[in-house]
Amino acid sequence: MRCGPRCPPNPRAKLRSVANETAPVRLLPTVVRGIAINAPVRSKSFPLPSSLQVVPGTQRAQAAYPYYTQFTAADDQRFWFYNSMHFPEPMSAFDMVTAEAAYCALGSSSTRVHCIPTTLGIDHRIINGRVYIGGNAVTDPAEIARRTAEFQQRAFYYYDNWERLYAQWREKMLALIHDARAFPKLELPEFEPLAHVEAGRGVASNHYLLDIYQKTLEGYFRMWHHHFEFLLLGYGAYLTFFAFCKKAFPEINDQTVARMVAGIEAEIFRPDEELRRLARRAVELGVEAKFAEGVSVEAIIESLQQSGDSGRAWLEELETSRDPWFNINVGDGFYHYHRSWNDDLSMAFASLPGYIARVLAGESLVRPVEKLQAERRQLIEDYRELLSSDEERAAYDQMITLAHRVFPYVEGHKFYCEHWYTNLFFNKIREFGALLAAHGFFPSKEDVFHLTHYELEAAIIDLMTSWSNGSPPRGPEHWPQIVAERRAAIGEWAKHDTPPALGPVPDVIDDPAIVMLWGITRESLQTWLDAGDDAAGNEIKGFAASSGVVEGPARVVKSVEEIARLQKGDILVCQITNPTWAPVFQKIAGAVSDIGGSMSHAAIVAREYSLPAVVGTGTATSRIKDGQLIRVDGGRGVVTILR
Amino acid sequence: MASSPEYVSWFADIGLGDRQDVGGKGGSLGELQRAGIPVPPGFVVRTRAFERFLEAVERQSPLRAQVEALSPDDLEAVTACSRATRARLEEVALPTLVVEEISSAHETLCHAGVVPAVAVRSSATTEDASDASFAGLQDTYLWVNSASEALRMVRSCWASLYSVESICYRRRRGFAEAGVAMAVVVQAMVDARTAGVMFTRSPTTGDRSVITIEGAWGLGSAVVGGEVTPDRWVVGKITGEISVREISDKKIKHVPLLAGGIEAVALEEELRRTACMSDAELQSLRTLARKVERQYGHAQDIEWAIDRHSGSILLLQSRPETVWSAREPAPVARAAENPLSHVMSIFGGRQ
């Protein structure tokens, strides 16, 4: 009889070598810096800015953007990338105020306030309505050293006094919001009210148009300074911990680190929580039948008003949710047409039938905050235990402590800045639009957004002058044709894809602002370049944002208006996923975006809903065709086009 | 068993502290069972059985002195001595009490086990945990299906101590032959539906937060022996997330032979590219792996099997991971006097 085979000594030896089989773990950029430096430099480059053509017939619309945003020959020497994360659609002449106000404030923070050692601010250029941006790295070691001394004095002061300064920030921000809400209504009465005369006001109503406009604009620029007051420092502290985890646990998922840091009760979850609360109240009040799928908001509200105390009680609940939590935009708030739930209740109401059905099925829909907090604590403790030494554990404790201190700002600012304030701002501009439209400057109040903020001031002064001298304003002859031309140009630009980047690929992207905010690295650029070569390949790589594997039809959504097309089980493919689309997250099976990191709010919401998500793919919206069957592997950060 | 046996010990009664008597493998299996980790039932033939036997051999003519006199570089002499010694160890009668106790324990085990077959594995006391190469010089016999065969394999295990490799190894290190002893593990076989190995850290990156699991249909010997390309998973130790999932084309599986031993058979077509276990089973393995690792306070190499009949998961053996532990790098970071200075790794440019 033959005996069993000899047992080889060591099963370890039989574990196959996986070095070449495993896709490299996608890291958040800063962490990859060391790798990027060593990456082979390919001679390939993106198209030069000078080679980009303004779409024929849109030259005049292009010329509307200020001279300082137009590409020049010297720009060919620099690297630029399309900021599709914040500006995924061609932006109208007025909306570019968001780009300049934001870059003004971002640059101030990094260049002059906190003095980030390795970078100044961000330049921006606009072509075909697309915003390209380029970093301004500091490379001279002596200059870096000089700035490091400044940075440590300034940034460390912020970190040391974070809670006090952040409390102060909230007050500042709420005061700014309060001021914006208090801007008077725009009025041009035929005769100045007698009361003004008797009070001896001495300043006529037309002057207040300019006053309110300038204050509105001033408030917006100021808001962006508030927005960036803490942001780079906050992200930096988070990334410090992130980089540590990636070194200590090379195979850890981005989202696991994110889960260790992310807050449980961040403002960003509140709007959706309010919807869940309203769904519960509807059931408790016995009015849930009013919220049938497909019934208009107006019809629902009318029928609630007619259904006695319980209906009215629900409507009162609705009001408490609306202020402030429905001041959330259906987009990132960077475009005038990213309207808030308050502006358009249908967005919020769309998710009520789904939530009500879940309440009726016995779900509480309450986020188990304590349980989530306990899970987070356990996660942090479990990873801590795996570290190799007490020395490492001490460093880990220091880093996560700082990350936890700064993170409430990183998560919380968006609601106040990008949503609440931005919404107030665009609505005030819309009021100017309505006034100008009423005076024949253009057909619709929305047309005001085809004027730059300089032009809008001119139009307002035109109207002020006209009111004062009794002659008709000149605007009605001047603007309608221009507005029509620019509206057509936006439509035209939207039909054309634009390169993800322009100019020579830098050897290394050593700009913490760019890597932190845009997730762009040497490695991700290489992927974009390769995507051009390998357009036939069926695999698209990105950041692993929320784990799980799912297959389903792709719904390629290029603008916010299209999200109504999403059906249950679809996989959302978009340029940037947005957390305020939260209601659609209960319909979709997964999400894929062109740009974004593992801490993008999209990733946070996707994890909250346990939806597989891959972000920062660079090319998903151009490579995936609407309706294609795709597979999203959110744990590996891979999207596969199946057919 | 009526009275406490002298030469065998059941797993339940031993632990790592008994390694001098039961060897590394035996002590480890006892330790696992004590920690509540499911292992196939079994017993250890203690080193004193070997010593008792060797005394009988020595009484005929000296053995240890002869081995100790060898030079590891004189391969010819070592080979001759090895051959002669092993022949003697096959011939000399086993002490009666040793035979009785092993036979009796074997009978108990075969009643307890699902299949009346056992694995016989050497469990050397000189088997240094951190020196896996020596561990590899010992033998394992699978699907041994009678008491007499089991006794023969116990003898073979003992004899393996006198293989050319073993002798050279000891001579090179100058170990005293008097201290050389061997225990033998006799363990119920698991008729595995699926079996394999797992490693409580990444073999490629050393990451302690993942568990790498490899498995294939049938008995684990196909995976351990490298005769099949196993399915492979990487599972987050803490999160349970399955980050790698490679289902390979598993052409064969190992099955037990009626007559004893193992044979490789072609795998049914429809199973070849089918995952050999479910996600729930992967998660159970993860739980077990964490438990074992905690028990030992050290990353582990684990062999496991899923019983075809009960569906339960059993650990066949566990040993400390050595490769990555031996080259533990410098800490990723150290506590800083000013905790804020850590952020300079992000803001300070290329370091």
In short:
The complex is a heterodimer of chains A (643) and B (351). With 643 residues, chain A is α+β, with helices and mostly antiparallel strands.
Task: Please explain how this structure is put together.
The complex is a heterodimer of chains A (643) and B (351). With 643 residues, chain A is α+β, with helices and mostly antiparallel strands. Chain A has helices at residues 11-14, 29-38, 59-63, 96-113, 141-160, 162-182, 194-198, 205-229, 231-248, 254-261, 270-284, 297-305, 308-325, 345-349, 352-360, 369-386, 390-438, 453-469, 475-495, 512-518, 522-533, 582-585, 601-608, 620-623, and strands at 80-82, 119-127, 130-137, 501-502, 539-541, 543-546, 549-557, 571-574, 590-593, 613-615, 629-633, 638-641. Among the domains of chain A are: 49-156 and 499-513, no CATH class; 267-366, no CATH class; 537-641, 3-Layer(bba) Sandwich (Glucose Oxidase, domain 1). In chain A, strand 9 (590-593), helix 23 and strand 10 (613-615) form a beta-alpha-beta unit. In chain A, helix 8 runs antiparallel to helix 17 (390-438). Chain B folds into two domains: 8-188, ATP-grasp fold, A domain (Dna Ligase, domain 1), CATH 3.30.1490.20; 192-326, 2-Layer Sandwich (D-amino Acid Aminotransferase, Chain A, domain 1), CATH 3.30.470.20. Helices cover 37% and strands 23% of the residues of chain B. Chain B has helices at residues 19-34, 47-60, 64-68, 75-91, 96-112, 132-135, 147-160, 164-173, 221-224, 269-272, 279-296, 323-326, 344-347, and strands at residues 8-10, 42-45, 118-124, 140-144, 182-188, 192-199, 210-217, 231-236, 242-246, 252-256, 262-266, 300-307, 313-320. In chain B, strand 8 (231-236) and strand 9 (242-246) form a beta hairpin. In chain B, helix 5 (96-112) packs across helix 7. Chains A and B meet through helix 1, helix 2, helix 5, helix 9 and helix 16 of A and helix 6, strand 4, helix 7, strand 7 and helix 9 of B.
